[in-house]
């Protein structure tokens, strides 16, 4: 009987420990730190059906964070059906102004904090991070981009946002790699339709990180999971902001017509400012 309890105790402990941990999936070996070029994001949004609009003015000299996406050891992003309850009203206010600087919502008409909530609920949870850890991770990885914004690394390599200049993928990758102390593999992502068949628009740059002893480090993005979305283009461009789809503007106005005078007023102010 004594012998049996010696055997049972560790088993019982294991059951308890694994139960505590089963609330969240296990930690992902890789996290994609997905930076987007706002003008390209806005072109894509305008092309959606029905078209969406970006909040103006559209940022043209900075990349912004799209999200932090957990991936497996081969580099493929992980999806899951897990969910956790988050006290957003407690979590966000102390970090809101910090997040807004590098991770702003670009899309017009979205509920408060929706970008951050969606990114955590869709991706963050799957990497086994609690919400606080997820946003702290994003903040600490952003600090590792020592020139402040990824675009500064492109600019110092002669890559600028211009509708008449295009660059090779290697030129862009080499410029991005100046973020690291030694060259690491990164992913480039493009929308399927570019300027034309040969010239694509750069949409996103993915830097990869791991988490070791509570610290995030840049690592080489694993291959072969490289998203091939820029492959069909010979050259890439960083577009300037373009006028927002008028169809979307019309739709927006129509929606406003049906709503409160207060909102109508704010639309009038908005229209005046552009
Ligand atoms: C762009 O990023 C830089 C950091 O390099 C920051 O100082 C600047 O305020 C940002 N500009 C905008 C418009 O957010
Ligand atoms: C694609 O667009 C670029 C940039 O505007 C232009 O230089 C190039 O000639 C175009 N190529 C084709 C095949 O139309």
UniProtKB/TrEMBL annotation:
The keyword Signal applies. GO terms for molecular function: hydrolase activity; ribonuclease T2 activity; RNA binding. Keywords: Endonuclease, Hydrolase, Lyase, Nuclease, Signal. GO terms for cellular component: extracellular region. Residues 1-22 form the signal peptide. It comes from the Eukaryota. GO terms for biological process: RNA catabolic process. InterPro entries: RNase_T2-like (IPR001568), RNase_T2-like_sf (IPR036430), RNase_T2_His_AS_1 (IPR018188). Belongs to the RNase T2 family. This is Uncharacterized protein. It comes from Capsicum baccatum (Peruvian pepper).
